[in-house]
Design brief:
The structure is a single chain. The two termini are about 35 Å apart. This protein is of the alpha/beta class. The longest helix is centred in the last third of the chain and has 19 residues.
Length: about 500
């Protein structure tokens, strides 16, 4: 028996769902293949490998492309189909629209295993937990706990036959679940879906995590490790102490992970630095405490954000700090203040995104109730997070300035006076334009490759100068020699 996994595209952040499902299928004796739609025609792939099951992994953005490809292939071939991922989980009402035989909600490994057994033996899968079929929707089963019960993900399926095998950064996950309930995040829906079904936040054992990294390290290029967990560590506990010792001894590569400001202290940073932490991702979201806590629901303990950032910097750890521009009830000054906060806190890279209320989140309901978006016309996916705000509460001028912060805010935070002042004036008074987009694109790429993920560290004979002057010289060389078309979306 053979299963074909289908995704829309391969991104620089390794796709982890398919490797887990492929491992489940192989453990059950199935052969597996992968089709990436933006590289290969689905119908041609099905003709070549003749799968018994075609399994689609869909997020909100890829749903339309996957559904269209499925309908086209189904006209020519007979196969059993299933779709899982964020879209079926958060939008189960679209099952009929997808045209597949089953939707899988939530954690898919055990449901997919049961599904394959039913297909193999010719039995109905209508009653399999987590699935939606033409007979109706079934309840979800308990969450996998302990996580080590899962098979080691089949990383070969996404690495061996794509450009990812040669990329210097590889992504791993030490946990599942997020303990927090931000209003803009779909995790809240996930928690309601699994209420009473087990612990939301779970950790793999240190040995399991290190073993997976070692396996990838033996077979593929890997110069840098990113941990993609929603929150890698909350405190300096026994798990982190063991991880620090094992990672430093057995892996020895720089890495990046996600933290929260109100859980950062010297004990935590000391262990992370000892392990090899090169940079961390954190979110301020808004400089306004009211917007951050009440509207966006961060529920963050009161901390001095600037002090916490300087503490991280004192350990030699670079910082990527995220802000959500044009959040409901925020002022233009709130967003402009982020630049000043970045400057006095020595933020390595300030990452900006435009607030997009996603359907199914508390922020979406909040925005609809206040007339900030029209639910009939609002595009509630993250494709707009790199564009101009569509919320009705801001003037066109405020939207333009906020978009300029998205384009130039990171650069403005790193420049010395008077260049810093000049860029601020450009943000306030010059309309967004292609030059601003090129500056953002160039500086973003420089920061990602050298300051956040350090993707050239093996080839570097000496550390790159950390001043903004060295970065800007490199930036300008890239800007004026680049022949690429200007884009401001699709960040890796």
């Amino acid at each position: 028996m053979r299963s074909l996994f289908v995704i829309e595209k391969i991104d620089f952040a390794d796709h982890i769902a398919v490797p887990y499902l492929s491992a489940v299928a192989k453990r059950a004796g199935w052969a597996t293949d992968l089709c990436v739609l933006d590289q290969t025609d689905l119908a041609e792939t099905i003709h070549r490998c003749r799968p018994d099951v075609v399994a689609y992994s869909a997020n909100v953005v890829s749903f339309a492309a996957l559904s269209a490809a499925h309908r086209k292939a189904r006209r020519r071939f007979e196969f059993t189909s299933i779709m899982g991922g964020p879209h079926p989980t958060f939008s189960p009402e679209t099952f009929a629209q997808a045209g597949v035989d089953a939707y899988c909600m939530g954690e898919g490994e055990r449901a997919f295993e049961d599904f394959l057994k039913r297909v193999e033996t010719g039995r109905s899968f209508d009653d399999v937990p987590n699935l939606i079929t033409g007979r109706g929707r079934n309840d979800v089963r308990r969450l996998v706990d302990p996580l080590d019960d899962l098979p080691v993900p089949d990383r070969d399926i996404t690495l061996a036959h794509t450009f990812l095998k040669d990329t210097p950064k590889k992504t791993f996950y030490a946990t599942r679940g997020c303990p927090f309930s931000c209003s803009y995040c779909c995790n809240n829906y996930y928690k309601k879906l699994y209420r009473g079904k087990g612990r939301i936040v779970r950790r793999f054992s240190v040995e399991r995590v290190i073993g997976e990294i070692e396996s990838v390290q033996r077979h593929y290029r890997m110069d840098f490790v990113k941990f993609g967990d929603d929150l890698f560590a909350m405190k300096a506990d026994d798990w982190l102490e063991e991880f620090t010792n094992q990672y430093a001894r057995r892996i020895g590569l720089p890495f990046n992970c996600y933290l929260r400001f109100d859980h950062v202290d010297s004990d935590l940073l000391g262990l992370l630095k000892q392990a090899g932490c090169y940079s961390v991702h954190l979110s301020v979201d808004s400089t306004s405490e009211f917007v951050r806590e009440t509207v966006l629901g961060r529920r963050m303990k009161k901390v001095d954000i600037a002090r916490q950032l300087r503490l991280i910097e004192s350990y030699g750890i670079h910082t990527w700090v995220n802000y959500m521009l044009a959040a409901p009830d925020s002022t233009l000054q709130d967003d402009l203040d982020s630049i000043a906060l970045n400057r006095r806190s020595k933020v390595t890279y300030a990452a900006y995104s435009t607030t997009v209320p996603v359907e199914g989140t508390a922020l979406y309901d909040y925005s609809v109730a206040r007339g900030l978006i029209d639910p009939q016309t609002h595009v509630g996916d993250l494709s707009g997070c790199c564009g101009v705000s569509t919320l009705a509460c801001f003037t066109d001028r405020e939207k333009r300035i906020r978009y300029n912060i998205f384009l130039l805010g990171a650069v403005a935070a790193r420049l010395p006076f008077p260049l810093h002042w000049l860029v601020l004036q450009a943000i306030k008074y010059v309309p967004p334009n292609r030059l601003f987009a090129r500056i953002r694109q160039g500086y973003y790429r420089y920061a990602i490759e050298n300051k956040i993920f350090n993707l050239h560290w093996r080839r570097r004979k000496a550390p790159m100068h950390s001043s903004s002057g060295g970065a800007l010289k490199l930036l300008w060389r890239k800007l004026w020699t680049s022949r690429n078309n200007v884009t401001v979306s699709g960040d890796a």
